[in-house]
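Supplementary Note 3. Input sequence used for the single-chain structure prediction.
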Amino acid sequence: MKKLSVIAAAACLGLMLSVSAAAAEKTDLVIAMDADIETLHPSDYSTTIEINILNQVYDKLIYMNPDGAEDPEPRIAESWEISEDGLDYTFHLRDDIKFHDGTPLTAEDVKFSLEMYQNSDYQSANVDGLDTVEVVDDSTVVCHLSSPYSPFLLGISACNIASKAYSESVSAEEFASTPNGCGPYRYVSRASGSNVVLEANEDYYGGAPEIKKVTFEVIPDTTTTAIALQTGEVNFAEIASSNLVMLESNPQITIAEAPTSGFTYLSMNLEKEPFSDVLVRQAINYAINRENLVTVCYDGKAEVNSNICAKSRFGYSDDQMQYGYDPEKAAELLAEAGIETPYDLGKILVAEKYENLATVIQADLAAVGLNTTIVKEEFNTFIGDLTSGNYDLCALEMTLEGDTQQLALAFTTDWIGMANNARYSDEEMDALFAEAGVVNDSEEREAIYDKIFTKAQDEAVYAVICNPQTLYAYSADLTVPEFVLEGYYYINQFSWNS
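The predicted structure, written as discrete structure tokens, is reproduced below.
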């Protein structure tokens, strides 16, 4: 009996050592994403999910915290100078960087990439102010600006640097679907609707990542994601606030909050009646009970704010009006606009992840006699209908990260069909954003932004509701750095605890 106990103990010890060794050698990571990607094009992406994958595959000239409050850090560019007149930015590139196909990165690739951004339908705002790009030699490139533009460095810090030679050797479809970057991870494969797989770039100039394989799994249902985190099938995910209590009680899960300038809003199609009437838009703003919505949809993990400019962002002022919950005022404005209630306001377009949001808004609108129908679509179909203007109302979240000037994407005429979801066109607004882009004096810029956001609120261009927090949950034995503004992450900074 004693002998059997010793053998059993030895077997258990062997199993424990085996399990321990396996844990110590863990190098894979599974990340849940709530929708599939549409593209992995280096400059024509449009969703946060696509950004999070591209950030692992491609690298940038420089790195800047999205809040713009800290000095830029070298990446592909090891140093840079700015001319006294603020028109010329000279970047000196590292000479030891190779793309994943083994070809060296040169100044020609930087020129190609920045010009690609200039022509992008989605991300050209990142190179606002850029006129031309000059290649001096293989390791030196000069960006010539048309006029001084203070947020230029912050903008190009978001630009992925791609291979010119690769783009010329493959079809446009392959260039967009099979990325060849120089970042810490190589693209391996994609199963549409299922996953995207990456592997570590062992030759990365910043050092080989500790996480060797990364799988981004498509899991649209938030509760399924929460369960997968608890079972260990998923190691890292952005989570819904509705699952927070369940996950917080699990000692094997770590919860982290990421600051964001993103906003939750109801977009109204201003090209359609009755949304072209400012009185109707103001009424809709007053009809929404933002405090209740934050409680119901975000479990309190959001800041009520009817201004598209987050309160932490440059250009926000408490003097800019806020829409409070006032159904009586909403009824008065509807009557003034000649709207007889009950009135069929049309359809609220949503992706599945925003259905609860739309349901709460629908109830608020019904309370003032505005009836709506919710139409739910698959995420990429939803984005297509939204950007093409094939909708009446749309409930969603959006982030326009970077300098405050990025909010021009939501208001200026050139961005209709992209981030200007309201399809709002106003010459004065266009001129104000153009002026803000060339002014360097911070007080002058702040005054221009005050005019912009005061005008946007007065005209009720959008019905902005709140600034939600981004919530992440991940395995407790995974080391993850503190999240910066917007919650972007870089997996080469992750590691499993031994």
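The chain has three domains: 28-40+183-260+470-496, 59-166, 263-468. The chain has a mean pLDDT of 92.
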